[in-house]
Amino acid sequence: MKKLFVFDFDKTIYLGDSSIDIYLYELKKNILLIRFLPVQFFGMLMYKLKLKPKEYFKEKYFSFLKGVKDIDNDVIEFWNKNESKIKRDMFVGKKNIVVISASPEFLLKPICDRVGIDKLIATKVDSKTGKFLSNNCYGKEKVKRLEEEFNEYEIEEFYSDSNSDVHLALIAKSSFLVNKDKIEEWKLKK
To answer: How far is Cα of residue 139 from the mean position of the Cα atoms in its chain?
Structure first.
């Protein structure tokens, strides 16, 4: 049985929200990306009114990628500037480190590879269009995706900043809630 140390990414091992931060980074490089704001706002409105699912909103949010010339290079440059926001002390010295996140795989893969994460499980998003190529890796979907990757596993420790990750917390031997630099045991009724 594989013993795993599992981490959410945004606001857990990364001080911030990578999806928002990459958008702001791209806006600074090209203010004309603001032209996607009406589509993004409409997507958010439809989601908030419960007329469309979260994936719909997120696809509209990531529509700005259509206006980015070289996202692969920009992601590398982005992480060159933001690598210092990774809290390596949370996972250094551990083995079988898994990051599982709702953020796009194309955005997280370069930094996870760079800092020594063993496995990344994230939402598959077309980096040129913002279209989803998989279900949003969120909530119960995280457990499903973890089970697809590992036949037999045990989560030794799980870390997250969000109650939406309770499904993973419930199956971990030990779970921890992260709030910036504060880490406390996640008290759950199992």
So the answer is: 12
